[in-house]
Amino acid sequence: MQISTRFTLAVHSLLYIVRFSGDCRVTSKRVAASTGANPVVIRRLFCQLKDAGIIMVEPGVGGASVVKNYDEVTLLDVFRAVESTESNLFAFHDSPNSDCPIGGAIHKILDGELEAAQRALENRLRQTTLQDLLGRLPS
């Protein structure tokens, strides 16, 4: 399993926005230079973060800014804003054979494990805020 890079790019972008928004207009081009990603990818992330109510983006080259208090934005908020998981993190194959002893029981024996793993991830991400991460940045 691998979660896409959107999540870590979004966290990187948010930290960049917070750190540099007082010094300059934080544009997708500037964030792209820091992340090594294409500015188009950063603009898409900005749209997702804006739709989630985490940032505001000024039209043109106005730049981005975080609109919530940094101690209110959790990693779970960022994850949910940019990852395209519906409700379940783990996708299940479409048609297990119900006539097979494994296929007929796979949901019963595996669903609870997957739900517990997802809850554990969400609980951990819920514990860390942007403020927490800002405190870990070098001065």
UniProtKB/TrEMBL annotation:
Q: Which Pfam families match?
A: Rrf2
GO MF terms held by the record: DNA-binding transcription factor activity
For this protein, the record's SUPFAM superfamilies field holds: Winged helix' DNA-binding domain
Identify the InterPro entries for this entry: Tscrpt_reg_Rrf2, WH-like_DNA-bd_sf, WH_DNA-bd_sf
Q: GO cellular component annotations, sorted alphabetically?
A: cytosol
What is this protein called in UniProt?
A: Rrf2 family protein
Protein's organism: Slackia piriformis YIT 12062
